[in-house]
Design goal:
Blueprint lengths: L10 H9 L12 H7 L3 H12 L2 E2 H8 L3 H13 L3 E6 L2 E6 L7 H17 L5 H6 L3 H8 L12 H8 L8 E5 L7 H4 L5 E6 L2 H14 L4 E5 L5 H9 L3 E7 L8 H11 E12 L6 H6 L8 H10 L3 E8 L14 E7 L5
Parallel strand pairs: 4-5, 4-7, 5-6, 7-8
Antiparallel strand pairs: 1-3, 2-3, 8-10, 9-10
Helix pairs in contact: 3-5, 3-6, 4-5, 13-15
The chain binds S-adenosylmethionine.
């Protein structure tokens, strides 16, 4: 094999060799004539110029040039073999684009100018955007069909919440008090790095375990405990306190709601939030029998007062629109959420 000596190369070629040390068939010095041969077809100039504009699939190139796919493939083959074009396979489709570091080669640059000129004259360049936009046409048609009422609880919720998670400034640890079957975990587990979920009823935790396994919520720890129990407080203390303590539909079961708020507050790290979802005061006595409720909801001022007495600050209560409160036996009640924060210097 002949030894390659760079000192005999044209300066442009030498410069190129420095750009792309890997010698490509068509660009390499002593076989440079191959590059001219390779480009001696108008369709190849067009293909090269299109691939320099946008990464395009073979079918898209054929459509733009008004050529058959086999013909386009035939002409792409040497351009691909010479590594002028980079190839990316996606399933059954093949995309090509110009290998960027060849743009600097003067012959390639000239070929690109010539190809672009041909495409311009034929109005092809102006059609690229429409051909690329057409990639979305199947999805547009698919989703344009009426598909009934929206699902109440999208099965993709966890994935969507993963997109939201980076916006939550403090998400090291959440505690879900009275987790029940873990419905709230569907929302908080994808957001927080770690969750302690606690309930005093083993029967509820059993259902919750099933959910954790189904969702691969391996970072959720279940605890069988009462809100006031020392093992719960010890564990959360060990973990440095919670950034958020949730209690959804739990407070109306507490014999002393004010004391329960103090228990929730003590689980929060300094600066951490306590978030209580519960009903607004109502008169529906059936809830006592149907759901074993001890209290018929709370006035917002009552909740704020509990929070203040628990040493929390910035307490505010926000109503939750009825359309978001489910269809269970408590779906007809007015729901609200209390948000309050443990002082940062607590
Ligand atoms: C109505 S369920 C709510 C479950 C869940 N948070 C939700 O909103 O779907 C109330 C749950 O809180 C639990 N619970 C009530 N008081 C509790 C307490 N003091 N300590 C621990 N769990 C409690 C009950 O065992 C029950 O599972």
């Amino acid at each position: 094999m002949r030894r390659r000596d760079d000192s005999f190369l044209h300066p442009c070629v030498f410069a190129h060799r420095q750009l792309s040390v890997e010698a490509d068939l068509a660009i390499a010095s002593e076989r440079r004539w191959e590059l001219y041969k390779l480009l001696a077809e108008p369709i190849r100039l067009r293909l090269l110029a299109l691939a320099a504009e946008e990464e395009l699939a073979i079918g898209e190139l054929a459509e733009l040039l008004g050529e058959s796919q086999p013909n386009v493939s035939r002409h792409l083959k040497p351009l691909r073999a010479s590594k002028l074009l980079a190839v990316r396979k996606e399933g059954t489709r093949v995309f090509v684009r110009l290998q960027e570091d060849h743009r600097a080669d003067p012959v390639v640059a000239d070929a690109l100018r010539a190809g672009a000129g041909l495409l311009e004259d034929e109005g092809v360049l102006g059609r690229i955007a429409a051909v690329v936009r057409a990639r979305e046409a199947p999805a547009r048609a698919f989703f344009a069909q009426a598909a009934g009422a929206p699902s109440a609880w999208p099965s993709e919720l966890g994935a969507y919440l993963a997109a939201l998670a980076p916006l939550v400034a403090r998400r090291r640890l959440a505690v879900d008090v009275g987790t029940g079957d873990g419905a709230l975990l569907e929302v908080i587990a994808p957001v927080f790095e770690r969750v302690v979920a606690v309930d005093r009823a083993e029967a509820q935790l059993e259902r919750c375990r099933e959910r954790l396994a189904r969702r691969a919520f391996d970072h959720v720890e279940l605890l069988l405990a009462e809100l006031g129990d020392a093992p719960l407080h010890d564990r959360v203390g060990e973990l440095g306190g919670a950034d958020a303590v949730f209690a959804a539909r739990v407070l109306h079961h507490a014999s002393r709601p004010s004391e329960a708020l103090r228990g929730l507050a003590s689980l929060a790290a300094p600066g951490g939030f306590v978030l209580v979802v519960d009903y607004r005061a109502h008169q529906d006595e059936r809830l006592r029998d149907q759901q074993a409720d001890a209290w018929l909801g709370f006035e917002p001022a009552e909740l704020r007062d509990y929070a203040t007495r628990a040493g929390l600050e910035d307490a505010h209560v926000t109503p939750i629109p009825a359309a978001r409160c489910g269809e269970g036996p408590d779906g007809h009640l007015d729901w609200q959420v209390l948000a309050a924060r443990r002082p940062a210097d607590a």
